[in-house]
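Memo to structure team: turn this sequence into structure tokens by end of day. - J.P.
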Amino acid sequence: GSHDLESNSLCAEFPVWAERLRIDAFARSWFARRPMINTFLSVAEEAAQAAGGLLRSQFGRPLTVDEAHAHDIKLELDKRSQALIESLILSRFPDHAIYGEEGIRGDQNSEYQWVIDPIDGTVNYFYSLPHFAISIALRQSGTIIAGVIYDPMRDELWSVASGGTPTLNGQPIR
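Reply from structure team:
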């Protein structure tokens, strides 16, 4: 009788409650990770701006070419820029891996892997065209969770973290 009706009602409500608990668990885990994602993003921003300062200081000066190909060029400055970025990241997160255009460091099977292009637009940089950037992304278990692009000539810092609002120089992009 009424017991069956009550059981059926609870059974009918179970998926709703299960979904709420699943969402709540996701939200708790997301908010728990959020401060760490913000820390990762801050470090990426700091590293991109430091590399940008280096590139700005060398812009228009004679450059050492390590390799030249039909549509690509490798500069000694690429390596210095990546080394600066690596040192700032790995000093904070020594167990993370680096997957950079100028080489890899650390255990590439690490949960966290930083993907770095130390001079995105090297050919432009070489010809003193002020259209280049520093690009840094962070993968967690293969999924990009944060990214930064810094244009040091325009002092524009584009940033976003997974689930966050993209920003330009700290202001939300509309």
